[in-house]
Design a protein that fits this description.
With 222 residues, this protein is mainly alpha-helical. The chain has a single domain, classed as Up-down Bundle (Four Helix Bundle (Hemerythrin (Met), subunit A)). Helix content is 72%, strand content 0%. The chain is built from eight helices and no strands. The radius of gyration is 20 Å and the shape is globular. The termini are far apart.
């Protein structure tokens, strides 16, 4: 087999490279995490200057820009984790900053979409995101983070489980749909945005249950 074919197969396989990564491979996952934070800041900044009472052509450009940044930031979330595992490039920085960047991305956009600048001239919140919905998402993150700190500090495994992954998929998918739908005030798009916002909130709330059950089961050992 030629060298090029061997290199291609090594890239496609899920087996990590033996030994810790060095050079640019060691830095790339963390660079993607930082890039996600930068894109999140840009996305939130665009959304904060949007004015639903006077959308116009500039409003369309703002929503498309925010949508593009959010989607690209979400892609880096999957990519940096994959590369860190593939290249054996995990680090303390990545273990702290990667989940933080995820939460800032999702919660930042979710909170801004419930803001007063998304109320149109008729007094309708055009995103479908009620102000209490981000509170539910924030409560979930604080609760799970607190439980993880307590139990892992006691030597009990409290790593992320499958409901956390479903929660993230629902949040990213729902927020992407809402941002995309902001381009139109048609009745069916308003319904889609409302359904997406409710789906994010319900899935996020339900994703707390297994963590609470796990905490109760382990309570006697702490």
């Amino acid at each position: 087999m030629s060298g090029n074919h061997t290199a291609t197969l090594m890239w496609m396989t899920e087996t990590p490279i033996s030994g810790p990564a060095s050079g640019w491979r060691a830095r790339t996952p963390n660079a993607l995490t930082l890039l996600r934070l930068i894109m999140t800041i840009g996305c939130v900044a665009l959304l904060t200057v949007y004015d639903a009472s006077e959308p116009g052509s500039s409003g369309a450009a703002i929503t498309w820009g925010a949508f593009a940044l959010f989607v690209l930031a979400s892609v880096t979330d999957a990519l940096d984790g994959y590369l860190a595992r593939r290249w054996n490039a995990t680090s303390r920085f990545g273990r702290v900053m990667d989940p933080l960047a995820d939460k800032v991305l999702v919660l930042g956009v979710f909170i801004v979409l419930a803001g007063p600048n998304f109320v149109d001239g008729a007094g309708t919140l055009v995103t479908g995101v009620a102000p209490w919905m981000p509170v539910v998402a924030l409560t979930r993150e604080l609760l799970v983070t607190s439980l993880r700190a307590v139990y892992e500090g006691a030597g009990i495994d409290f790593s992320a489980i499958w409901t956390g992954k479903i929660k993230m998929i629902a949040q990213v998918g729902g927020l992407s749909l809402i941002l995309f739908a902001l381009r139109s005030d048609a009745e069916h798009w308003l319904t889609i945005k409302s359904v997406a916002a409710w789906s994010i909130t319900v899935v996020t709330a339900l994703s707390m249950v297994p963590y609470i059950q796990k905490a109760r089961a382990a309570a006697g050992t702490v």
